[in-house]
Give the backbone structure.
Amino acid sequence: MPSKERFRREILSWKRVLADAKRLSKIIKDSGYDFHLVVAIGRGGFVPARILCDYLLIRDLATMKVEHWGIAATRTGKAVIKFPLCADIKDKRVLLVDDITDTGETLRVSIEYLRDFRPEEIRTAVLLHKTCSATIPNYFVRKIVKWRWVIFPWHIWEDLTGFIRTLRDTGTSCEEDIIRELKQRYGITAHPRMVEEILSEIQSNRGTPVKY
């Protein structure tokens, strides 16, 4: 694998995510703005949106899916709406939620799409905001100034599968070597049991990502 494929990463625990979501809910509350419903951007925004609904005591949660990033920090192309919104948001105050901003394309495309439904207002919230993003959310907990790939607990298996596939494709196939390379190239300390299970799935072709 060429050295240019090395990049910084951050792995978040469930404890950290819950703490960040609670802080985000307080930031939203302190803004004094009340929302009629939350719209989650799939897939990354599903979990944060549900947690925010809990802390903000918002009962209505709708979803839509935007596709941009693939597995393990690979882009699938420009952001597009894959699964549309199935809710009436006309004249409603909408809180649009995702887990993180990166290029900002996902938020931009989502906002433009939702405006066609004629809501009263759309505001956006994410847990983490990368300053390289072209779209700045209304609410966020932390800024990321130096770009890094963030692995949330709801896609750690998927990302590790992608990284391990890349390592295997470039000649690293031994379990011990894979664990070492994950640490050296990506800064990921992977549990041997997890690596063993992922390798077993890959070798039996069950680790192949589903294509729609």
